[in-house]
């Protein structure tokens, strides 16, 4: 499903070019947002959930079809237990509070990352969110939770090796055959990858899938991210020329 250069061509009629099909966001800066206001880090995470709600709504309005957000990384377990617990509780509260509306709005919810190791109540809830929205296709919200790209690739490689040992697949591995084992198996590659908070790194997010994503690093802290920031990100995306290794059209 991936690797297609998914962004459609700008319209020939001179109107606004279409939005990127798939936007991925590293939602960073909650702690610094809170610190700057003399608040506990948990307050930043709480406000971060509000920014996520705003962004899901804005993304749909702006014509984005797929939004994938980095919510908790496999490395975030290194944080104090109290903060980890807050982040888990916020995911739970978000799904519990928003699932009915997401479902009604035609949103398909997916949660990518290692399911094993999640507390059973959270694992059950995310299973339910995925099941109950599986028939939706208007908008695709993917939450990367307990997600790390290296972990995803290793789990995929292990599953592939098992299938090979069982004689279910051949050893001729192609991009497409391998992608079928990734958590993102039914998602297109991201066109635009945004990181908030002014950090210039990927932090183990979608390493395989973002091979040709346009990268955008913005200074705003995630709790302050809003529709204007997303619109501006899309405008900057439209200024980029995506070549996918080829030469630009018209180049001699
Ligand atoms: C993003 O904000 C949320 C997670 C990584 C879970 P941070 O908590 O990383 O905030 P900063 O980077 O410390 O400001
Ligand atoms: C990346 O942010 C992970 C999420 C946003 C969930 P981090 O704050 O964990 O990344 P580093 O530690 O600054 O690289
Ligand atoms: Mg951070």
Gist?
The chain is 39% helix and 14% strand.
Task: Name its key features.
Undecaprenyl pyrophosphate synthetase, binds 3-methylbut-3-enyl trihydrogen diphosphate, 252 residues, 7 helices, binds magnesium ion, six-stranded parallel beta sheet, alpha/beta, globular
Summarize the topology:
Layout: E1 22-26, H1 30-36, H2 41-61, E2 66-73, H3 81-104, E3 107-112, H4 120-132, E4 139-147, H5 149-165, H6 175-179, E5 192-195, E6 214-217, H7 227-238
Parallel strand pairs: 1-2, 1-5, 2-4, 3-4, 5-6
The chain binds 3-methylbut-3-enyl trihydrogen diphosphate (IPE) (2 copies) and magnesium ion.
Q: What can you tell me about this protein's structure?
A:
This protein has a single domain, classed as Decaprenyl diphosphate synthase-like (Undecaprenyl pyrophosphate synthetase, 3-Layer(aba) Sandwich). 39% of the residues lie in helices and 14% in strands. The protein has helices at 30-36, 41-61, 81-104, 120-132, 149-165, 175-179, 227-238, and strands spanning 22-26, 66-73, 107-112, 139-147, 192-195, 214-217. It has a six-stranded parallel beta sheet, sandwiched between helices. The protein binds 3-methylbut-3-enyl trihydrogen diphosphate (IPE) (2 copies) and magnesium ion (MG). One 3-methylbut-3-enyl trihydrogen diphosphate binds at residues 27-32, 72, 76, 87, 197, 222. The site of one 3-methylbut-3-enyl trihydrogen diphosphate has 11 residues, from helix 1.
């Amino acid at each position: 499903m991936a690797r297609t250069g998914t962004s459609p061509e700008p319209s020939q009629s001179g109107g606004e070019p279409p939005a990127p099909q798939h936007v991925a966001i590293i939602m960073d800066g909650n702690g610094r947002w809170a610190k700057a206001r003399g608040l506990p880090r948990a307050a930043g995470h709480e406000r971060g959930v509000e920014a996520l709600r705003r962004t899901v709504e804005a993304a749909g309005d702006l014509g984005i079809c797929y939004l994938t957000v980095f919510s908790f990384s496999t490395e975030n377990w290194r944080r104090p237990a109290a903060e980890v617990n807050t982040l888990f509780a916020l995911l739970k509260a978000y799904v519990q509070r928003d699932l009915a509306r997401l479902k009604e709005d035609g949103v398909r919810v997916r949660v990518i990352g290692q399911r094993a190791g999640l507390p059973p109540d959270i694992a059950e809830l995310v299973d339910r969110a995925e099941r109950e929205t599986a028939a939706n296709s208007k908008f695709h919200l993917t939450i990367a939770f307990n997600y790390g790209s290296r972990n995803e690739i290793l789990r995929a490689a292990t599953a592939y090796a098992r299938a090979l040992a069982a004689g279910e697949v051949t050893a001729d591995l192609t991009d497409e055959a391998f992608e079928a084992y990734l958590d993102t198996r039914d998602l297109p590659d991201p066109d635009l990858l945004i990181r908030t908070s002014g950090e210039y790194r990927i932090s183990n997010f979608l390493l395989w899938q973002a091979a040709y994503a346009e990268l955008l690093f913005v200074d705003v802290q995630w709790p302050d991210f809003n529709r204007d920031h997303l619109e501006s990100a899309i405008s900057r995306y439209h200024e980029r020329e995506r070549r996918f290794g080829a030469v630009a059209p018209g180049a001699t």
